[in-house]
UniProtKB/TrEMBL annotation:
Protein topology in the membrane: Multi-pass membrane protein
Signal peptide: 1-24
UniProt-annotated location(s): Cell outer membrane
Keywords in alphabetical order: Cell outer membrane, Membrane, Receptor, Signal, Transmembrane, Transmembrane beta strand, Transport
Organism: Marinobacterium stanieri
Any one GO CC term of the record: cell outer membrane
Designated name of the protein: Outer membrane receptor proteins, mostly Fe transport
Positions of the TonB-dependent receptor plug domain: 54-185
C-alpha cells in the first residue's frame, strides 16, 4: 500500500484558496439574473456562494439547491451530502474499493444511534420504510428461504439530490413536529415551480479505468477476474447518470415541475458451476427517480400543490453457483401527495399535508423450483433452479395538519405557538405467493460418480433411472400487520428580553403495540449581549423511535415448510413439519433522552458553534431465545453516547480576491459510544455477557464497533469566479481510526464454571481524503447555458484497511481509492 503525508490534502486546499485567476473581473457580479419580467428562456448566471448549509441554529443544518450543486456529492445520494455534518457518522463497511460498481446508497447514524431509527421525510410526509430497515447489507446471492428479504433500508426512497430544492437535517433539539426516530431527521423538499421556465438535461459517467483500486494481494487474482457472483469484486464496471429537470408555467398562477433521473451501473461477475465451467455475466444495478409537482396559487393567501414521487433500485443476482437461476432484487416506493397552505385573516398559517406512499422490497426469481438430479453426474450440472418470488410491502395513508398562530404578546413575553398532528394508517405484509420447491432425485442403482446404472433400457444415465428421494416444500404464506399511528404536538417559541425558550410536547399512539408515548422537547437560549454575538443554549428532549414489520414476522415463516422423504416405490418414509418458534412480543417503544449544551459566537467575519450532546437510549429492541427454544423480541437494548461538535465558518463574509469569492467551513466532531447493538442486523442479535478488561460485562458496555468514528475533522471550501462562470469546491476529511472490542478467540471461566468469550481492544488506522469538484456553466447562446463538471474523490488516493477480524486467513478490505466522475449538460 502506498502512503502519503497526512497533511498533504490540507496544504493543497489552503494553498488553493487564494490561487484564483487574477484576470477575473469583479464587474461580472452585475451579470443579469432571471426575473419575472424577462423571457421564459432567460439566462441563469452562476449562483452566489450560498450562506446556507452551515448550522443556522443548534441542531439544524439547511442545505439548499445551490449548495447541493456546489458540494462534491459523488453519485448524488443523501449520504454524500451529509458528510459535511460532524454529528453524522457512517459504517466503516459502507464503501469498499473492491466493489465500487455497486449502486447502493450508504446508511448513516446521528450521534451514535441506530441508523435504522432515523426519520426520512419528503415534502412534510414521513416516507421511512418500517419493513426490515436493519438489514443493511446488499443481496446479490443466496436469498433466504426461511427468513425475510435482506438488503432493505430505512430510506423508503433513494432520492437523487439533484432533484431536490432543499434538505433540512436535525441532529439535536428537534422540534415536537417530528416524531418516529431516536437518531436524527432528514427532511427533503422536492423542487417546485419558481417562476422560470426551463429544461435542464445532464449526462454523467464513471468508469473502472478512472478508479484506483486497493486490494489485498491474496485476492488480486480473484479481483482481476471478477471471481464472485455476490458483487464482492467489481473490477470492470461502467456507471451512467441521466437527469432531466424541467419547469413550465401554465397560465399566471400555475406551474409544473418535473424531475426524472436514472443512475445505472453494469459490472462483470464470473463463477464456476458444478462441472467447473466458467460463466461470465454482467449485472445491472440501477436507481430510478421520478418527481412531478403541480403548484397553483389561488390567491395570495391560498396555495396548493399536488405531487407524484417514485424511486426504485433494482439489481440482478444469482441464486448460487449450483442453483443458477438469476433473480432481480428491488427496493423502492411510489407515492401521491397533496399540500394546502392558507393564511388566515388573523395572520395565522394553516398547513395540511396528505399522502399515500407504497414502499416494498421484492425478489423476482427465474423459477420457484430447484432440483438435484444424481443421473446427471459427470454429464451436466446436477443442480439447477431458483428460489421463487417474495414480496415485502408497506402502504401508508398520511394526514398531517398544522396551525401556526400569529405571534402574540403576553405581558413582557412574545409567543409563537404551533399546534399540529399526524395521523397515519399503515398496511404491511410479507408474502411468498406461490411457495418454493426443492426436489432431490437419487439413482435406483448408483454408478458412483458417473450417474446411474441404466434401468429403463435407454442405454444412458437419465431421469428414467431415478426416483424422487426428498422433497422440501417452502410453502406459500402471508404475514400481515395493519395499524394506526396518531400524534398531537404543541410547540411554543417564547421570546422574553435576551432569552428565547421552546416549550414543546409530543404525544404518540401506536395501535399495534398500544403504546402512548409522551415526549417533551425543551430548550432555552440566552443572547448574552442582546446583539446575537454570543448565544448560550441548553436543551432537554426525548425522542421515541419506530417498530417494524420484522418483529411481527419473527420466526413464523419456518412453519410454512415441510420436508418429505420417499422410498424407491414412491412411498413416504418420513415427513417433518416445522413449528412456529415465535413467542408473543410485548414491546415498549424505543426512546432516546437527550441533554445538550451549546455556545454560538460571532467573531468578526467568523461564526463559531460549539455543541455537546449526551444521548441515553433505552428500550432498544433485541431478539432473544428463551429456555424452550422460542424466539421473541424484548426491550433490553441500550446505547449511551457523548458527542462534541464544533464548526467555524465565514459564510456571511466571503473572502473576495482577484474577482473570486471564497467561503471556508471547518468542523470537528468527537464521539464516544457504548452499545450492545454491534452489527447491521442489530435487532436480530442474541448478545451474551463477555469478558473484557478484566471483568465480565454485559455486551451493552462494549465500545460500538461500527458507526463509531471517535474523531472526524473536515474542511470544505467553495470558490466562485463569476467572470468565468466557474465554481471550485473542495472537501477534506480526516477520520481517526477507532478502537473497537473484538473476540480474541480465547475464553475465560469464572469460579462457577461459566465460560465467556474474551474481548480485546483493536485500533484501526486514520484516514485523510480530499474530494474536489470543478463546475463550469458557460453561456452558449442567448437562451442556452452549458454545464460541465469534473469531480475527483480521494484525490491523493489514500486508503486504509477496514478489517476487524483477528484471523490472518481473512483478507483485508480497503476503503475506496481515487475516482473520477464527469458530467455534461445544457439548460434551455
Amino acid at each position: 500500500m502506498r502512503s502519503h503525508n497526512a497533511l498533504t490534502p490540507f496544504i493543497a486546499v489552503l494553498a488553493g484558496l487564494y490561487a484564483t485567476p487574477a484576470a477575473a473581473d469583479t464587474a461580472a457580479k452585475t451579470s443579469n439574473t432571471c426575473n419575472q419580467d424577462q423571457s421564459d428562456t432567460c439566462m441563469q448566471t452562476l449562483p452566489d456562494v450560498t450562506v446556507t448549509g452551515r448550522e443556522i441554529a443548534f441542531g439544524l443544518q439547511v442545505i439548499n439547491q445551490e449548495l447541493i450543486e456546489q458540494l462534491p456529492t459523488g453519485e448524488g445520494n443523501l449520504a454524500d451530502l451529509l458528510r459535511t455534518n460532524p454529528a453524522v457518522d457512517f459504517s466503516r463497511n459502507g464503501r469498499s474499493s473492491a466493489n465500487s460498481g455497486v449502486m447502493r446508497p450508504e446508511e448513516f447514524s446521528f450521534h451514535g444511534q441506530a441508523y435504522y431509527q432515523n426519520l426520512f421525510m419528503i415534502d412534510g410526509i414521513d416516507t421511512t420504510s418500517d419493513i426490515n430497515p436493519g438489514s443493511g447489507g446488499d443481496l446479490f446471492s443466496s436469498p433466504s428461504l426461511t427468513g425475510v428479504i435482506g438488503g432493505s433500508s430505512p430510506q423508503g426512497y433513494y432520492l437523487d439530490v439533484d432533484l431536490l430544492e432543499q434538505i433540512e437535517v436535525y441532529d439535536s433539539n428537534v422540534p415536537a413536529s417530528f416524531g418516529g426516530f431516536t437518531g436524527g431527521v432528514v427532511s427533503a423538499k422536492v423542487k417546485r415551480y419558481d417562476g422560470n421556465d426551463f429544461v435542464d438535461l445532464r449526462y454523467g459517467i464513471q468508469r473502472d479505468e478512472w478508479e484506483s483500486f486497493h486490494i489485498d494481494e491474496r485476492d488480486q487474482e480473484e479481483f482481476d477476474t471478477a471471481d464472485s457472483y455476490g458483487a464482492e469484486y467489481t473490477p470492470i464496471y461502467r456507471k451512467d447518470n441521466y437527469t432531466l429537470s424541467a419547469q413550465q408555467g401554465i397560465g399566471e398562477d400555475t406551474g409544473l415541475t418535473l424531475g426524472v433521473s436514472r443512475r445505472s451501473s453494469s459490472f462483470l461477475q464470473s463463477y464456476s458451476d458444478g462441472l467447473d465451467r466458467l460463466h461470465r455475466v454482467y449485472y445491472d444495478d440501477r436507481i430510478n427517480n421520478l418527481h412531478a409537482k403541480l403548484d397553483h396559487r389561488w390567491h395570495e393567501r391560498l396555495h396548493t400543490s399536488f405531487s407524484l414521487r417514485h424511486s426504485d433500485r433494482s439489481h440482478d443476482g444469482l441464486t448460487s453457483t449450483r442453483y443458477d437461476d438469476m433473480f432481480t432484487k428491488s427496493h423502492g416506493g411510489w407515492g401521491l401527495g397533496g399540500n394546502l397552505e392558507y393564511t388566515l385573516d388573523s395572520g395565522a398559517r394553516f398547513n395540511l399535508d396528505m399522502a399515500m406512499d407504497r414502499m416494498s422490497d421484492e425478489l423476482d426469481s427465474g423459477s420457484n423450483l430447484f432440483t438435484r438430479h444424481e443421473s446427471l453426474e459427470g454429464i451436466l450440472p446436477t443442480q439447477s433452479g431458483g428460489y421463487g418470488d417474495t414480496t415485502q410491502r408497506q402502504t401508508a395513508f398520511s394526514l398531517s395538519p398544522e396551525l401556526e398562530l400569529a405571534p402574540m404578546s403576553w405581558g413582557s413575553s412574545r409567543h409563537n405557538l404551533i399546534v399540529g398532528g399526524d395521523l397515519k394508517y399503515t398496511e404491511s405484509f410479507y408474502e411468498r405467493p406461490e411457495g418454493a420447491f426443492f426436489r432431490e432425485y437419487s439413482c435406483l442403482s448408483d454408478s458412483d460418480i458417473n450417474g446411474c446404472i441404466d434401468q429403463n433400457g435407454s442405454g444412458d444415465s437419465d431421469f428414467g433411472d431415478e426416483y424422487l428421494a426428498r422433497a422440501f416444500d417452502y410453502g406459500a404464506g402471508k404475514v400481515s400487520l395493519d395499524y394506526t399511528t396518531a400524534a398531537l404536538y404543541v410547540d411554543d417559541h417564547i421570546e422574553q428580553g435576551n432569552w428565547q425558550f421552546r416549550l414543546g410536547l409530543r404525544a404518540d399512539y401506536n395501535s399495534w403495540l398500544e403504546n402512548l408515548d409522551m415526549a417533551p422537547r425543551l430548550s432555552a437560549t440566552w443572547d448574552s449581549f442582546g446583539d446575537g454575538s454570543t448565544r448560550l443554549t441548553a436543551g432537554a428532549n426525548r425522542y421515541y423511535g419506530r417498530n417494524f414489520l420484522r418483529y411481527a414476522i419473527n420466526d413464523v415463516i419456518k412453519s410454512w415448510n415441510t420436508l418429505t422423504f420417499y422410498d424407491t416405490n414412491g412411498n413416504i418414509t418420513r415427513e417433518t413439519t416445522y413449528d412456529d418458534s415465535s413467542r408473543n412480543n410485548s414491546l415498549a417503544t424505543p426512546y432516546s433522552d437527550e441533554l445538550m449544551l451549546g455556545w454560538a459566537q460571532r467573531m468578526g467575519p467568523f461564526n463559531s458553534h460549539l455543541k455537546f450532546v449526551h444521548r441515553a437510549s433505552r428500550d432498544s429492541i433485541r431478539r432473544i431465545e428463551d429456555g424452550d427454544g422460542k424466539y421473541y423480541y424484548d426491550n433490553t437494548g441500550r446505547n449511551d453516547t457523548d458527542s462534541l461538535t464544533w464548526t467555524l465558518d465565514h459564510a456571511d463574509h466571503p473572502l473576495k480576491l482577484a474577482g473570486s469569492e471564497t467561503i471556508t467551513s471547518l468542523s470537528v466532531g468527537w464521539k464516544q459510544t457504548e452499545t450492545d447493538l454491534q452489527s447491521d442486523d442489530a435487532y436480530d442479535q442474541e448478545p451474551e455477557p463477555v469478558y473484557y478488561e478484566g471483568r465480565v460485562i454485559d455486551g451493552s458496555e462494549l465500545p460500538a464497533w461500527d458507526y463509531n468514528i471517535p474523531l472526524n475533522i473536515s474542511l470544505s471550501t467553495q470558490t466562485r469566479v463569476p467572470h468565468w462562470h466557474l465554481t471550485w469546491s473542495n472537501f477534506v476529511s480526516l477520520r481517526s481510526g477507532s478502537t473497537i472490542a473484538r473476540d480474541s478467540g480465547d475464553s475465560y471461566t469464572d469460579s462457577n464454571g461459566n465460560r465467556y468469550d474474551v474481548y480485546e481492544d483493536y485500533t484501526l488506522a486514520d484516514l485523510v481524503t480530499l474530494d474536489t469538484k470543478v463546475l463550469w456553466k458557460p453561456r452558449l447562446w442567448s437562451s442556452q447555458q452549458g454545464y460541465m463538471m469534473i469531480e475527483v474523490s480521494n484525490l491523493f488516493d489514500q486508503s486504509i484497511s477496514t478489517k476487524t477480524s483477528r484471523f490472518d486467513s481473512i483478507s483485508d478490505s480497503y476503503t475506496p481509492g481515487r475516482k473520477v466522475w464527469l458530467e455534461v449538460g445544457m439548460r434551455f
